[in-house]
Amino acid sequence: MEIKDSNGNVLNEGDSVQIIKDLKVKGSSDTLKRGTIIKNIRLGSGEEAVEGNSDKIKGLRLKQCFVKKV
């Protein structure tokens, strides 16, 4: 199954993605700002298919509609 970003580009393991919208993080008071880069992503299954780590928050799971490939 192909996982695509918000622009329709196919995502692969190890890619870097950029967040396109400010996102509140569940279970934390932090907010991921627009433009944050998530490096070395892993692809999962289901609705939240993009997994990775940011500088402040580890173990992120993001929907592909909120990221774009860098």
Could you characterize what this model shows?
The protein is 0% helix and 34% strand. The chain has one domain (17-69): Roll (SH3 type barrels), CATH 2.30.30.40. With 70 residues, the protein is mostly beta strands. The chain has no helices and seven strands. The strands form two sheets. Strands 6-5-4-1-7 form a five-stranded antiparallel beta sheet, with no helix packed on it.
Global shape:
globular
Count of individual domains: 1
CATH topology: SH3 type barrels
User: How many individual helices?
Assistant: 0
Helix coverage percent of residues? under 10%
Helix and strand element order = EEEEEEE
CATH homolog superfamily: SH3 Domains
Which second-level CATH architecture applies? Roll
What do the pLDDT scores average to? Answer: 93
Biggest sheet features? 5 strands, antiparallel
Strand content bin: 25-35%
